[in-house]
Amino acid sequence: MDLSPYIRDIPDFPKEGILFKDITPLLASPEGFRSAIDTIAEAFADAGITKVLGAEARGFIFGGALAYKLGAGFVPARKPGKLPWVTTRAEYALEYGTDSLEIHADALEDGDVVLIVDDVLATGGTAAAKNALVAATGARTAGFAFLIELDALDGRQKLGDSTIVSLIHVD
Question: Can you list the domains of the chain with their CATH numbers?
Answer without folding.
Answer: 46-170 (3.40.50.2020)
